[in-house]
Design a protein that fits this description.
203 residues, Translation Initiation Factor IF3, alpha/beta, 6 helices, Hypothetical Protein Ychn, Chain: A
Length: 203
């Protein structure tokens, strides 16, 4: 069975949610999703991969066409497995939600220095620190020439997941400049907050 889904003009996370709905209800062997921006392509593609589909994408005059085929070798829907019970959860899952590229509301240079020191100090929270989520102005910390890039790389190497809002990267025209973390969408961010034991917002 083949399914076609037009998600042009839809804001994040609607393309992912519509794709998720079709897969859960219809379980198609082949699905073609049309989106109109690179961030949506990355988010839908990542969801398809986690849902057991192989996919390719091609840009045309009328949008970006994502063609996905069910991978017969995939027996488990990895995305669905993210919804786990309290008994299965590891204790002390802490998420830090970073919505700005500086800490505090005063001097800009001071705020940037404080953010650098804050992120360096997060190493003290490992292994309780589960994920770092960057959105809005915070995504600027994940791009090339970021003063905290090496700090984030060390945290990632220590096992911390780094999620970066694709819509935010696209808004600031930074999608191609991201150097660390996994481009994500609002559905994944909400799921992360739902599964966390503690959320520390930095906005």
């Amino acid at each position: 069975m083949e399914r076609k889904l037009d998600c042009r003009g839809l804001a994040c996370p609607a393309p992912v949610l519509k794709t998720k709905e079709v897969i859960e209800k219809e379980n198609p062997e082949k699905i073609i999703i049309i989106v109109d921006n690179p961030a949506a392509r990355e988010n839908v593609g990542r969801f398809l991969k986690k849902s057991g589909y192989q996919f390719s994408s091609k840009e045309g005059n009328n949008g970006i066409f994502i063609t996905a085929l069910k991978d017969a070798s995939e027996d488990v829907n990895e995305y669905s497995c993210q919804i786990i019970t309290d008994e299965e959860r590891d204790p002390c899952k802490t998420v830090v939600l970073v919505g700005t590229d500086r800490l505090g509301r005063g001097d800009k240079a001071l705020g940037e220095k404080l953010m650098l020191n804050f992120l360096k100090t997060l190493d003290e929270m490992v292994p309780q620190l589960w994920r770092l989520v960057f959105l809005n102005g915070g995504v600027k910390l994940t791009i090339e020439d970021s003063p905290v890039l090496n700090t984030l790389k060390k945290l990632e190497e220590s096992g911390v997941d780094i999620l970066v809002c694709g819509t935010c990267l696209d808004f600031f025209n930074l999608l191609d400049k991201k150097k660390i973390g996994e481009t994500t969408n609002m559905l994944d961010i909400v799921t992360t907050l739902q599964l966390a034991d503690k959320v520390i917002p930095i906005t």
